[in-house]
Each structure stands twice: as structure tokens, then as C-alpha cells.
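Please produce the structure of this protein holding manganese (II) ion.
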Amino acid sequence: MYSGGGSRGYTGYTDKNVLNHYLTLDLPDDHIMCEYIWIDGTGEGIRSKCKTLDFEPTSLDDYPIWNYDGSSTYQAEGSNSDMYLHPCAIFSDPFRRGKNKLVLCDVYKYNKEPADSNKRKSCAKVMEAAKDSHPWFGIEQEYTLLDFDGYPFGWPKNGFPGPQGPYYCGVGATRVYGRDIVEAHYRASLHAGVKIAGCNAEVMPGQWEYQVGPCEGISIGDHLWVSRYLLHRVAEDFGITATLDPKPVQGDWNGAGAHCNFSTSAMREKGGLKHIETAIEKLSKHHSKHIHAYDPHEGKDNERRLTGLHETSDIHDFSAGIANRGASIRIPRQVAEIGYGYLEDRRPSSNCDPYSVAEVIVQTTVLDE
Ligand code: ADP
Ligand code: MN
Ligand code: MN
Ligand code: MN
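Below is the modeled complex.
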């Protein structure tokens, strides 16, 4: 028996047993369903729509450019509303399975210029310029599960859970809420071909993290955006939502970030620590530029999160330290001990655009821009 949102009074609930009949229908062998995915005008919302192809594509160029109504996605005026979807990364579809695909697209306006929300184009250019240094990224995506009423999933409806302490990496029904979603999302990500690296329950109950990476260059953005699409879709199946808001609950509750772990080939080799230290020195000179790029509202979202409390640094200060989780940049202890590896930029907000984050890190540390 399906025990998702329906049993909790979620009004959008439909009976998955009825759906099962249609999921087992025979379909034409030579037709595939392609779910085109893109980022809307908010810079954080994800949209998608489906297209049948009557052939099986073998390369990215085989996927047709498509379009949609930008006036309904905060992206265009109604009188000139066609926006173009350019396929840029292909993943397997864990919902439909088989040959069906997820087609991540970037968005272009009627005049063929990238849409304002298209941060991929400029990121790709920067990654191309820096490709000889082989930049790797690993992003820790924190998020919070919300019940259909907008309240954190699993929290008592008339109060608060006990104070933070037992929940991080917690085990047990009074410690973690929503593990089904986490497990389903992990498996869906692996099926899709997303480079998911791990997951854990977070400090605030109902808050979780998964990591994507290491991914080289532009692929970090592609994989992270598709992982987010999968998260929202999986949660939808359970009748709950996942929010990437960086501070979903005010008070003595941790916010959500998207720590960006970063290295170049020089940092990953013996003696790499001095390259990590040079990069941190460069980062220290561009703090506000980075804060601008680390959430979709030029620092406004992160203002609520980067308070200097709850394992964050103050938004106005740059700091760095070994194993310091209250710093802007942390050198993991193991990296300091063995003398090479990567650095962790703890500033990006959970709702950041990973293309913007990766772009500015490479500009500052590799291209000296
Ligand atoms: P934390 O200790 O901060 O919780 P996690 O284990 O959650 O760290 O995440 C570490 C991330 O760093 C993972 O996404 C991993 O893929 C990534 N990572 C590991 N090595 C490198 C590297 N050399 N360069 C960039 N990212 C890396
Ligand atoms: Mn982590
Ligand atoms: Mn975390
Ligand atoms: Mn971290």
C-alpha cells in the first residue's frame, strides 16, 4: 500500500496502484521519451517538459533544439516569449527507465543570446580557458525536507523538536526524518549517471546532505543541477518537498549551504599544499565578488545564513583555517597532514548556481581575473 502524502492529507495525492497499470503498458520499441530540463528565471527553479523522439540518439547533437514559453517562467514578455532549449548534458531517466533520457539544457533568448539565468555559457568559457589546470569540484548539497504544509518534515506540528545535537549522521526514528527520500534519491542519482559521492543526515532534523563530485570543469554544474531535479522529483513522489532555502528555520537551527571543494592538478600532487595556500591568498582578495556569486540574490540569501554562528563564517569577513568549520575556507585536516589535496569553500549557499560558483573560483585562483 502506498503510504506517501495521501495518508497525511496531501491534497495532490493520486493512487500509485492505478498508475501501475499504465507503467506496465507495452510501448513502441523505437520511441524514447526525453525529459528536457532547464533553469527558470528565478535562477533556482527547475522546469521540465517531455518530448518523444522516434529514433535513439547516439550523441548530444542528435537531440533537437526545442523551445518553451518564457513568459510563464519569469523569463520573457508574452509578446516575445519563445525561449530556446539547447541540450548540453544527457542522463538516464530513473523514473521512466530503459532508453528514456533526461536532457539538461541551457536557455537562449529569441535573439540567440543566453538568458539572464543561463550561467552555464560563461562558466563553460572559463573552464575551457583553465582546462590545462584540470579543475575539480565536489559540492556538498544541503537541503531541508518540508511537509506539504511548508513545515519541516517530521517536526511536531505545534512545537519544535529537541535542540540540535543528536541529529547529524543520526540513526533511529526520533533522530532522522525522511530517510526514504534520501535513499530513493541516491539510487535515482546513480541510475541516472550523476556522480553522487555520498550522503548524510544534517545537524537540523529533517535536513540532509548529499555530495556530487569530484567533477572536472563544467560537469560539476550539470551533475549538480540534474541531482537537484532528481531530488525534487523523488520528493514529489512521496508527497513532500525539498527546499534549498539557506535558512529555512530562524533561531538556533543550522542553515543549509553548498560547500564547494576545489582542486587543480598542482594542488593534488605532492607539495600541493603551497598551491592551495596561494589560492587561498587570492581568494582573500576577492571576498565580496565571491559572496555576490554564491547565491541567486547577490548575497542577500546568504546574509541569513552566514552569521558566524552554526558552523559558518560571518558574511563580511574572509577567514581560512585548517579543520576550521567556522572559516570561509577550510583546509581539511587530512589535506594539511599529507601536504596536498583540495580546499573547501564553505560560503556558497544551498541555493547557489554551481556554474556561477565554479566560474568565479577558477577566475580568481587559476586565471587571476
Ligand atoms: P565534509 O568533511 O566537509 O563534510 P564531504 O565528505 O561531505 O566533506 O564532501 C567532500 C567533497 O569533496 C566530496 O564531494 C568529494 O567528491 C570532494 N572532493 C574530494 N577530493 C576532491 C578534490 N581533490 N578536489 C575537489 N573535490 C574533491
Ligand atoms: Mn559534508
Ligand atoms: Mn554538511
Ligand atoms: Mn563541508
